[in-house]
Design brief:
The protein has 238 residues and is of the alpha/beta class. Helix content is 46%, strand content 10%. Bound molecules: 6-O-phosphono-beta-D-glucopyranose.
């Protein structure tokens, strides 16, 4: 990657810098499997395909709503302050969050070595960096993994909700991060592992959208608009 031709790299967090996409994935599976089993009517089990198609990369409650809609299940939306045992879209999202935080506390987080290598390289060559995550836990993940001091601009699920910035697959959170860095989107690269995130990058007029294949598959990332696909961020160190 020729970093001389761009001014900034906008990183998704979970699955791009840290292996926490997998933790989200497990937490969603635990919550949705229990939820489907608790219903009176029979439903096909929740699968990884459900995650990739409806939940991956999207803001918490939008992921819940998209999955429920795909199964024809209707629940009241509720409110983000709902308790985890409330039978609402927000309640289910918060129920998953309890599982996510439990796993995080017991297992900790290590940054992908290739991602650290790229961050070190960008610091050397003077390319600005930002984190753009749908997650409301992004600051906690950054703190726990030791990455916080490297990012002055973090656009996460909390900030997006507060500022009413539409989440991925819309491009707005990436565009907002570029603005915060004072960089023209046409001079910024988006780095994403989720289809919804790549779609967001492709819709935002960025210099490039790098898809990171952590299981979604190269073809799916290219179909979503990735201009290049890598399996490790060290491949982007020139
Ligand atoms: O529930 P949270 O922490 O706000 O996160 C929502 C989403 O955040 C993203 O970063 C993950 O890639 C998703 O898969 C996850 O569902």
């Amino acid at each position: 990657m020729d970093w001389d031709t761009v001014d900034a790299a906008l990183f998704d967090l979970d699955g791009v810098l840290t292996p926490t996409a997998e933790v989200h994935m497990r937490a969603w599976e635990v919550m949705f499997s229990r939820f489907l089993q608790s219903l009176d009517e029979e439903h096909d089990p929740y699968t990884d395909e459900d995650y990739f198609a409806h939940v991956d990369g999207r803001p918490r409650y939008e992921g819940v709503a998209a999955f429920l809609e795909s199964r024809g299940i209707e629940l009241p939306h509720g409110d983000p302050s709902d308790a985890p045992d409330d039978q609402t879209v927000c309640g289910l999202g918060n129920r998953k969050n309890d599982v996510f935080l439990e796993i995080l506390a017991s297992e900790g987080i290590e940054v992908y070595p290739g991602s650290l290598k790229l961050l070190d390289h960008l610091r050397e060559v003077g390319t600005s960096v930002a984190v753009v995550s749908s997650s409301r836990n992004a600051h906690q993940v950054l703190r726990t993994s030791g990455l916080s001091p490297r990012f002055s601009v973090v656009v996460d699920g909390m900030l997006a909700a507060q500022e009413q910035i539409p989440g991925k697959p819309r491009p707005d959170t990436f565009v907002y991060a570029a603005e915060q860095l004072g960089v023209d989107p046409a001079r910024a690269v988006v780095i994403e592992d989720a289809v919804s995130g790549v779609q967001a990058g492709a819709a935002g007029g960025f210099a490039a959208v790098v898809g990171v294949d952590r299981g979604v598959g190269e073809q799916a990332l290219i179909a979503a608009g990735a201009t290049r696909v890598v399996t490790d961020l060290a491949e982007l160190v020139r």
